[in-house]
Amino acid sequence: MNALLMLPRWVFRQLVWLANSPRTLILSYLLLIVVCGTLYHYFEPDTSVGDAVWWAVVTASTVGYGDISPETWQARLVAAVLISVMVLLVIPLITAQFASRLIVDNDAFHHDEQEELKANLRQVRELLEEMAARQGVSVPDSAGPPPAVSDR
Q1: C-alpha distances in Å from residue 21, one per residue of 13, 44, 58
Q2: Cys-Cys link to 36, which of 62, 82, 134, 144 (CB 3.0-4.6 A)?
């Protein structure tokens, strides 16, 4: 059973790596355009390389002007794969990358900062308990339930 899941796990890891690397994501987009344009030129011999790459860009962006369209079944298969990969994978990953850059809170504490704050808070709590013990005052336990709201 583990052998059956090796390929899907590998694909998933590659997608995560691709999604977390903007340069690689854009490079893969450009590579996909060039490869599909080259395949289109190969399957549609009447089309120039420039027109084939233009077709790939238009098809990948899902604009589909219709000025160039595949005639052979092989070129149509390339078009189907290109559209599917772009719409279901590349465009959502690029959109997610931009969205994550917009949503990131630069003022948020990092893990190290959070740990330092927790350690400092523990020290303050210990000092407060020592001072309260010297004064003969009990310090309420912070882990307990909050005090009841007074009736006004």
Answers
A1: 13, 34, 24
A2: 82
Q: Does the reported pTM lie above 0.85?
A: no
Amino acid at 14: Q
The pairs formed by 15-21 with CB atoms below 8 angstroms and a separation of 24 or more are 15/89, 15/93, 18/93, 19/93, 19/96, 19/97
Residue 145 has pLDDT above 60, yes or no: no
Q: Which two three-digit tokens encode residue 61?
A: 């962006």
Quick one: 33 exposed, middle or buried, by C-beta within 10 A (0-12, 13-18, 19+)?
buried
String of DSSP letters for 12-70: HHHHHHHHT-HHHHHHHHHHHHHHHHHHHHHH-TTS-HHHHHHHHHHHHTT---SSS--
Report whether 69 contacts 47 (CB < 8 A): no
4-31, pLDDT tens digit by residue? 788 888 888 887 787 778 888 888 889 9
Asked if 116 contacts 110 with a C-beta cutoff of 8 angstroms, the reply is: no
